[in-house]
Amino acid sequence: MLVARLIDNVWATRKAESLNGLKFMLAEIIGGSSTGQRLIVVDTISAGIGDRVIICTGSSARRMLEDDDIPVDAVVVGIIDEDCNFE
Amino acid sequence: MLVARLIDNVWATRKAESLNGLKFMLAEIIGGSSTGQRLIVVDTISAGIGDRVIICTGSSARRMLEDDDIPVDAVVVGIIDEDCNFE
Amino acid sequence: MLVARLIDNVWATRKAESLNGLKFMLAEIIGGSSTGQRLIVVDTISAGIGDRVIICTGSSARRMLEDDDIPVDAVVVGIIDEDCNFE
Amino acid sequence: MLVARLIDNVWATRKAESLNGLKFMLAEIIGGSSTGQRLIVVDTISAGIGDRVIICTGSSARRMLEDDDIPVDAVVVGIIDEDCNFE
Amino acid sequence: MLVARLIDNVWATRKAESLNGLKFMLAEIIGGSSTGQRLIVVDTISAGIGDRVIICTGSSARRMLEDDDIPVDAVVVGIIDEDCNFE
To answer: Which residues cross the membrane (chains A, B, C, D, E) (predicted)?
Structure first.
């Protein structure tokens, strides 16, 4: 999984039918040499802008959704505790 | 998923039988440290050149197509709203 | 999918039983910031050295083969038309 | 698989229901040109901070867990012997 | 697939139960702009240190093993012929 910070919401009115109702956010990887890489993630656990989160990618990401047929490859699986400090 | 801009159409007369009828486009990742990376995507939601889109990759990409047996690993799943601004 | 140029044939006499009969080629990604990255691909549509091709990777690549149990993660799925120009 | 060093624990009180009870750690890739890339991994074999470990990623990572429906894409599959030296 | 050179053996006494009996080796990608990236691979075709090999990754890698439930994401699928020269 990746450590990322949620930096904004993403709105896409025209999208795949099966994505309706999902919340998309822009995440930026923090820490390590991939810092600054960005990806769009689906959030189902009420994370907010500014939160440090754990991102799961690939086929495993679909395990967060109720339906395995949704075209999503990155989801927020956890919000890192504020007092959890690692460089 | 990735944020990308569609920059051109891609034509391939000789291709896998199962790809006939699909629309291929060249996309370039925008934003973050992967900016400038390119990939070919399948579009099924009538996106056009210049659009900022959400790209889903890997096995999840096949969820956009009606048939799981098509050799496609990247599809457009949404068109980002024009008034959705994020740096 | 990736845009790549086929640059050579690859011969491997000692290989997995299930790979016998498959044609392996060396491909180099062209265009965008991944230019110069190389991978070995399986070709089943009679592409040749010098051709610009569309490469499908991951589990989707196995969809080009008749058997889902073959250990292959990258295949040529199309040959880009010679008069298809994109920068 | 990747060679990485475990550098810290990761705590996330708010997370996917199915992740409860799993131990998350921060790993940093060592050796080769990906050195310094970081990812969060699940450990089920009692590895500790400072250990050099073998990380398995993607759908294969779920093979370490008893349940294929858990949204995890990276796990520790082995601890490299201390006297195993490679540059 | 990737072109890599096998550079060492990797020993991990403490590892996933299902990995017992498998031979792990350290491989380094050669050629192209990913040169120098390293990964740990499983070898089942008696490759040796110094051999140039073809590496298959991801879910396809598990196709080399008899059991789809083994947490392995990279395997040697072929040994490149010594007289096969490509720049």
So the answer is: none
Let me know: does D3 contact E40? Beta carbons within 8 Å.
yes
Report the alpha-carbon distance of residue B78 to residue A16 in Å, rounded.
6
Task: Show the domains of chain D with their CATH numbers.
Answer: 2-79 (2.40.50.220)
What letter represents residue A45's amino acid? Answer: I
A46 chain-D contacts, CB cut-off 8 A: 14
Residue (of D9, D4, D15) closest to D71 by Cα position = D15
pLDDT for residue D66: 83
Tokens of B58: 């890997």
**Distance between first and last Cα of chain C:** 17
Backbone region of residue D10 per phi and psi (left: phi > 0; alpha: psi in -120 to 50; beta: other values): beta
User: Which contiguous run of DSSP H or E holds residue C8?
Assistant: strand C2-10
Helix (H, G, I), strand (E, B) or coil at D20: coil
Beta carbons within 8 Å of E87's beta carbon, 6+ residues apart: C8, E31
Percentage of chain C lying above the pLDDT 70 cut: 99
Cβ atoms of B78 and A19 closer than 8 Å: yes
* Contact flag C34-E32 (C-beta cutoff 8 Å): no
**Neighboring chain D residues of A33 at a CB cutoff of 8 Å:** 34-38
The beta-carbon neighbor of C84 closest among B11, B41, B58 is B11
- Confidence at residue B14, expressed as pLDDT on a 0 to 100 scale: 97
**E1 vs C23: CA distance, rounded Å:** 13
CA distance D16 to chain E (A): 22
Give residue for tokens 């096998």: E6
List the helix and strand counts (H, then E) for chain C.
0, 6
Contact A63 D71 (CB under 8 A): yes
In single-letter form, the type of residue at position C75 comes to: V
Cβ neighbours, 10 Å, residue B27: 27
* B9, amino acid identity: N
Q: Both tokens of residue B21?
A: 């009828």
Q: Is the ipTM of this complex over 0.85?
A: yes
Which pair of structure tokens corresponds to residue B74?
């990247």
Give the CA distances from residue D7 to residues A32, D23, D29, D32, E8, in Å, rounded to whole numbers and listed in that order: 12, 14, 10, 18, 24
As a whole number, the mean pLDDT across chain E is 95
Q: Neighbours of C (≥3 Cβ pairs closer than 8 A)?
A: B, E
Residue in chain B lying closest to C61 (CA): B71
How many Å is the maximal CA-CA distance in chain C? 41
Across the interface, of A33, A59, A84, the residue whose CB is closest to D10 is: A84
